[in-house]
């Protein structure tokens, strides 16, 4: 078990399209990793790969993690809900095995930190907020598909702000 305080935190947007962001305090992005997936889910669907996720988390040498606290939506089918729960369990288990304390942050909480309205139609607002906050690293969020990277980064920044 290791819990070294190098001033590095990780933040995670759970899911197969999610991301892991390593942030050096106060808020310098060290690295962004797209959630590692392999086609081992139901019917060959993408699923978060535990060993690859563990490799990423151990590489960060983080002392704390902020993770989005989400669950399946009522509109999710059983396969999607199970896959989402599997992703959440893998994230929680890998962090526990690494000895990294975990703080859950709900979507309304981190979105309020950055004045992002609720709703799927406002997801790209997170990308705009991340670009505005890290203009020197805007290329990390340049593509439309980088929304989940932006959300992961903002989850971490909200956690840092809340801790003071």
From TrEMBL:
Taxonomic superkingdom: Bacteria
Xref: CDD domains: MOC1 (cd22992)
InterPro entries: MOC1-like (IPR045290), RNaseH-like_sf (IPR012337), RNaseH_sf (IPR036397)
Gene3D superfamilies documented for this protein: Ribonuclease H-like superfamily/Ribonuclease H
Molecular function terms from GO: crossover junction DNA endonuclease activity; nucleic acid binding
PANTHER family xrefs: HOLLIDAY JUNCTION RESOLVASE MOC1, CHLOROPLASTIC-RELATED
Name by which UniProt lists this protein: Uncharacterized protein
Species this chain originates from: Rhodoblastus sphagnicola
């Amino acid at each position: 078990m290791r819990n070294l305080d190098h001033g590095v935190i990780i933040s995670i947007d759970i899911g197969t399209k999610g991301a892991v962001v390593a942030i050096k305090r106060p808020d310098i992005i060290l690295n962004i990793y797209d959630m590692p997936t392999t086609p081992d889910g139901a019917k060959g669907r993408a699923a978060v790969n535990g060993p690859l996720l563990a490799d990423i988390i151990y590489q960060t040498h983080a002392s704390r993690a902020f993770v989005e606290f989400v669950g399946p939506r009522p509109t999710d089918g059983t396969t999607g809900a199970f896959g989402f729960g599997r992703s959440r369990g893998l994230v929680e288990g890998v962090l526990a095995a690494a000895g990294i304390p975990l703080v859950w942050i709900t979507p309304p909480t981190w979105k309020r930190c950055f004045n992002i309205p609720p709703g799927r139609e406002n997801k790209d607002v997170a990308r705009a907020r991340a670009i505005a906050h890290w203009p020197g690293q805007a290329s990390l969020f340049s593509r439309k598909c980088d929304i989940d990277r932006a959300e992961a980064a903002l989850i971490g920044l909200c956690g840092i702000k809340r801790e003071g």
